[in-house]
Amino acid sequence: MELLKERIRRDGTVKGTDVLKVDSFLNHQMDVALFEAMGREFLRRFADCGVNKILTIEASGIGIACVTAQSFHCPVVFAKKSQTKNIAGEVYSTRVESFTHGRVYDVIVSKKFLGSEDNVLIIDDFLANGAALEGLIDLVNQAGARLAGAGVAIEKAFQPGGDRLRAKGIRVEALARVKSMSEENGVEFVD
Ligand code: 5GP
Questions:
Q1: What is the pTM assigned to this prediction?
Q2: For the chain: N or C, fewer Cβ within 10 A?
Q3: Does the beta carbon of 13 lie inside 6 Å of ligand 1?
Q4: Ligand 1 in contact with 105 (CB < 6 A)?
Q5: Is 185 left (phi over 0), alpha (psi -120 to 50) or beta?
Q6: Which atom of ligand 1 sits closest to the CA of residue 21?
Q7: What is the pLDDT of residues 53-106, one digit of tens each?
Q8: Ligand 1 neighbourhood includes 99 CB (under 6 angstroms)
Q9: Which residue ranges of the chain lie beneath pLDDT 50?
Q10: Could you tell me which residues are beta bridge partners of residue 150?
């Protein structure tokens, strides 16, 4: 998606070898007009999939997921990072290793909000090693729901997550795919 790629070129900054900072428009200050265009693009790509629910993970996926849900006219559920154990069995629960914080979180979704009647589109801001999407897919599977696919704003294609998920037959759509990046030369895209 050219609009997003242009914005990354203009306002994104590379930290070290593998962190792209986009917090002036994507995951701290949020450019909602850009999100709207992204939501329409996700709808174009997943138009005939019968999506009736969007699933994301807190915190930085929520904004994009909400605006995307306006295009799909469906609700959004976000997986919550949880401190408490699932004693009563009323939640689905999985573990996710955070790329940016380097620690493992338990994340949960209430069984009230995800079930076998759902056809789920997963939305997130970044795809790196794939841990966040794999955790969300695990929750979809626990719920017996159908997975239409996953849409991410930015895939760092030099990291293994996207290839691994596609090899499992999961449809992954990225609006901007980063081929390589460095502090000196900035960001280069796959196509
Ligand atoms: P993964 O689980 O695929 O390794 O990483 C995805 C999660 O890590 C995303 O939800 C995103 O919040 C965070 N993340 C991964 N790479 C980056 C990055 O380069 N920049 C930022 N801002 N967040 C990232």
A1: 0.97
A2: C
A3: no
A4: no
A5: alpha
A6: 22
A7: 999 999 999 999 999 999 999 999 999 998 776 656 899 999 999 888 889 999
A8: yes
A9: none
A10: 122, 172
